[in-house]
């Protein structure tokens, strides 16, 4: 009798707890967050089944409501104003949950492998140039940061571990350097709050970052067995999307920046398709149109004798830029380090990505966002003449001799070329090539680019041939 009464009491207690269950929000919603301005921003979470959840926003004193489904899920969309704040959001199912210090501004997703993951304080024995002074002066009430803790899963997850943080030195030090410098320049140029979501994992390939529906489009990729057991590799297709992207799919963003490619270096032909495929996959998941997707080209590095010359991967990244809408690339040909795969000049990387966004997304003008891009090649006897886009104010090598050009005849053997900058572009020749048919520039694993436009942005490595060797 006593046992029966005890069991009944426990059941009543559990039922009481369920009935009193408070609103639960995923990690992407919290104090100090930034919501995308001038849009219908989704807010969602969990509460007791059958409850009405009300969301009230202080910027317009409006209230929105939703009924929970059988699993307790609810979702509303709130109308956000022009950039500003701080504001408060009150969420209630009878018991109030208040989000404080909420800003309205521009929100960007920042993802990739270790060069995106690398924090402002640097990796062990691998510095970020100028980091100590940059961290010391980094306090900014109009920038907010959130990092997604590393995780992997064979099935989609609806939450992650992480929280929004204020832009203070102790938080900036541990945040993605590329993402932070990108956001810092955007905030300064636009004069609005900026929110940065960092979801990155060093050493990972691109395939794990795509959803199952996205990766199915590439027939050379094998989908994982969802029933597999044991330790799961972060290189497994879909597992990082499932655990580190899916939990906040639908959170209103302006766009995404991406820094990855080193781990796919030996499959440039596949990467040329996978990179725009990733952008299109994420856009399909978000369902808010073809949002901007900008990426950093991998910098030159000495990968050793095994594998392909990384210039082929950089070429694939160049081609990907025009393979889908709203794509853009920041070239890093001048900051690679021969023996360190993590270039220290992360501010340059973030600033160049920001320039792409400021021009292509925000319509700013008066400055350049791209280095010189080959427009046309012409031959005049043994002389090759090259013209370039994104060089209306001319080209420069900063007074140094151009040393990275090569030229080949029909025998496909490349010789170093004597090159010089002209008013029209670049003129080059080699005494060993009487009838040139192809040119390559900086087409090597590690090399320091020496061709820039006058605005100081480097040309990518390129070639005019399509030869296998």
Rounded to an integer, what's the Rg over CA atoms?
A: 26 Å
The percentage helix is 10-25%
Mean pLDDT: 95
Number of strands: 23
Task: Specify the structural class.
Answer: alpha/beta
Task: Please tell me what the overall shape is.
Answer: elongated
- N- and C-termini, Cα separation: 86 Å
Biggest pleated-sheet summary? 11 strands, mixed
Contiguous uncertain segments of 5+ residues: 8-20
Q: How much β-strand is present in the residues?
A: 25-35%
What's the total helix number? Answer: 10
Tell me which oligomeric state these chains represent. single chain
Structure explained in plain terms:
This protein has 469 residues and is α/β, with parallel strands linked by helices. Helix content is 22%, strand content 27%. The protein has helices spanning 2-19, 114-117, 131-136, 169-172, 177-190, 212-215, 239-245, 268-286, 311-320, 346-360; strands at 34-36, 40-46, 52-57, 62-67, 73-79, 84-92, 96-112, 140-147, 165-167, 194-200, 255-259, 293-296, 327-330, 373-380, 383-389, 395-396, 405-408, 414-416, 418-421, 426-429, 438-441, 452-453, 462-463. A hairpin with a 4-residue loop joins strand 19 and strand 20.
